[in-house]
Amino acid sequence: MGYKEPVTLLEVLDRILDKGIVIVGDVTVSIGGVDLLQLKLRLLIASVDTAKKIGVVIPTGHFEEERLKDKIRGELMEEMKDELKEEMRDEIRKEFKREQSKEERKRGKKVPVAAA
After folding, report:
1. pLDDT by residue for the chain (116 residues), tens digit each?
2. Which of 23, 28, 61, 106 has a CA that sits 20 to 30 A from residue 51's CA?
3. Contact in structure between 28 and 37 (CB atoms under 8 Å)
């Protein structure tokens, strides 16, 4: 048996990040044969370069930009909903006035026909 020098934490971390390590585990909590909770763990610890080499897609870091886009989309949607509500109110008012005019004409009152 040969003697090996102690390995430092830095060397272990360097090797893990260089080669990568995968941790896989399943945990199931059950009572009386009924599964109540099931956890599936798939964890990859590696450097970005190592992860890219093995085909892992890395987020680009534009999270703030995406959040801002989502906020703008939400504001635009609210604006569009408000405009649509106002258009619908206008159409309902016009239709109500048309119906009122028809009713008054049926009763014999002379009412000018409103342009649509």
Report:
1. 566 788 899 998 898 888 888 899 999 999 998 999 999 999 989 988 888 888 887 776 677 777 888 889 899 999 999 999 999 999 999 999 999 888 888 887 655 655 55
2. 28
3. yes
